[in-house]
Specification:
The chain contains five helices and 33 strands. The chain is mainly β. A seven-stranded mixed β-sheet has the order 1-19-18-21-16-13-14, with no helix packed on it. A six-stranded mixed β-sheet has the order 2-15-23-22-17-20, with no helix packed on it. It is globular, with a radius of gyration of 22 Å.
């Protein structure tokens, strides 16, 4: 493994979210004491029969004690807030009962999972209504990775995620089992779900009050739903699975004394080669796994993880046994499919804060069409100006990609030889991706600043098998969605709060400051 250590974030500081208007600095509210990091328990299957495994995932309302005083009304999956960690193994056939115990419709999007679309993928075209249960099934046919599940009922994705509808989905495989890396969940391997929230009167969330079309910042960090967490370090090496679970905030992570992190995995696979660094940027929707070696510390020491200059997590060092394990130089070998040299290059632009290729999203419009298992080059451009633009995290449902270049130059070191599905694109930058969809269906691609996708920075691509008749999907539309939300809340359609996306000539009032469901807690 190369001993080179990278000491920057690979992006221009001028593009960081902290340099943009309405950025919120983080703080810890008064009265909060340090507490152990909450480690989500592993979700127990309903049944296992050979290679088949069954789960129930229930969206439900709850209450969470974040702060002294009143509990906060929250939503979660099989939990009051966020959810339990679902662990799957490559090759398993997975059966899931999706149960909606909320008072409004939701969807279940498998971010990073290569499953058919749109109904199993769980985009806005796959609603599960209040009191309803739906059965889905899929086979896991991808390498070890940290993926995640979150609500995606555009244009209310941001509000429902804000309430807590997100959870980790860990994929394991035989190759990972053989690697000499920490893998004792909750002991030397920890999921780190990075989020932020604003607490209003009586410690409640109020998404409507916080709404900002440029992206909603919280001012209080929640790490796995924990404020001011610490981790007791009882092993020399610790594996951290970072998930950018925020609506808008970027996380620029570093340790005390520039302690080195060794990145071993990205969104959808291990890296081909480990990369050592002292600074790591995690954008909305991204997942990055690192190993941290605490051999230079002794029992009683405390090592802090920061975002910028704000302390996020204390690592409290205890006695540990020496660990002389050595990472191999090659962790994973990605398949690098050939692209037809005569095939046109897809051109995708992210424009303003609410458009893809100059258009706002329409649920029933097919923006592109491609063949299943057919590799293509996509040139993804952020058209924002350098003076007023921002990093846009570009995400594709149901696909993985390899990063080919940034403005014609070599990609960032931790983007080489790894499957990704989400990537930060800087203002006036074009990133070339080699994209492949392994499953048929209709899929979305969008900015993962969630308010931007809700506002219309999103599009649909239809993936077909040219040897079969083209499928037809019953796609959601704004009128049906709005009527459903209005009926569920018992309010006129004119009062449904779905800010941003006025794309189908239906809701001329949708920018108004109106009442809401998920946003009115």
């Amino acid at each position: 493994m190369t001993e080179k250590v990278y000491t920057d974030y690979f992006y221009d500081e001028a593009d960081f979210d902290k340099n943009h208007f309405r950025y919120k600095n983080l703080h810890i509210p008064d009265g909060v004491e340090a507490q152990p990091l909450a480690v989500p328990p592993v979700l127990k299957p309903d049944k296992v029969d050979g290679n088949d495994i069954w789960f129930t995932i229930e969206s439900l309302e709850g209450e969470t004690q974040f702060l002294p005083g009143s509990k906060t009304k929250t939503w979660g999956y099989n939990a009051p807030f966020l959810g339990q960690t679902m662990v799957l193994k490559t090759g398993q056939h997975v059966h899931v009962t999706l149960k909606n115990s909320l008072k409004e419709l939701t969807t279940y999007h498998w971010h990073g999972m290569e499953v058919p679309g749109p109904y199993i993928d769980g985009s806005c075209h796959a609603p599960v209504y209040p009191g309803e249960e739906k059965e889905i099934e899929f086979t896991v046919e991808q390498p070890a990775a940290l993926t995640w599940l979150h609500a995606h009922p555009c244009p209310s994705t941001a509000a429902q995620v804000w309430m807590g509808l997100a959870m980790g989905v860990v994929i394991t495989d035989d190759h990972e089992a053989e690697l000499p890396i920490p893998k004792a969940y909750g002991k030397d391997e920890f999921p780190i779900v990075l989020q932020d929230r604003v607490f209003h009167k009586d410690n409640q969330f109020d998404y409507r009050a916080d709404y900002d079309p440029m992206g909603v910042f919280g001012d209080t960090p929640l790490i796995n739903g924990t404020i001011k967490p610490y981790i007791d370090v009882t092993t020399q090496k610790v594996r951290l699975l970072f998930l950018g679970g925020t609506n808008r905030r970027e996380w620029r992570l570093h340790f005390d004394n520039d302690l080195v992190m060794t990145q071993i995995a990205g969104d959808d696979s291990f890296l081909e080669h480990p990369v050592k660094m002292t600074k790591l940027l995690v954008g909305p929707g991204e997942r990055l796994q690192v190993i941290v070696d605490f051999s230079g510390y002794k029992s009683g020491d405390v090592v802090n993880l920061y975002t910028d200059d704000f302390k996020l997590i204390e690592f409290r060092i205890h006695d540990f046994e020496e660990d002389n394990s050595v990472l191999p130089d090659t962790l994973f070998t990605p398949t690098d499919p050939k692209v037809d040299p005569d095939a046109p290059i897809r051109k995708v632009t992210m424009d303003d804060h609410d458009k893809i290729n100059g258009k706002q999203y329409s649920m029933q419009r097919i923006d592109m069409k491609a063949e299943v298992n057919h590799a293509e080059y996509w040139d993804v451009t952020n058209t924002n100006s350098k003076s007023h633009g921002m990093l846009h995290p570009f995400h594709i449902h149901g696909a993985h990609f390899l990063v080919v270049s940034r403005n014609g130059q070599t990609p960032n070191p931790n983007e080489i030889g790894v499957y990704k599905d989400t990537i930060e694109v800087a203002p006036q930058e074009t990133v070339r991706l080699k994209v492949i969809f392994p499953k048929e269906g209709l899929f979305m691609y969008h900015c993962h600043i969630i308010e931007h996708e809700d506002a219309g920075m999103m599009a649909n691509i239809l993936i077909v098998d040219p040897t079969k008749p083209e499928p037809h999907y019953d796609l959601m539309d704004m009128e049906t969605l709005t009527k459903a939300f209005a009926e569920e809340k018992g309010i006129p359609e004119s009062e449904v709060f779905m800010p941003g996306m006025c794309t189908e000539g239906y809701m001329d009032h949708c920018h108004d400051d109106a009442n809401s469901g998920a946003s009115h807690h």
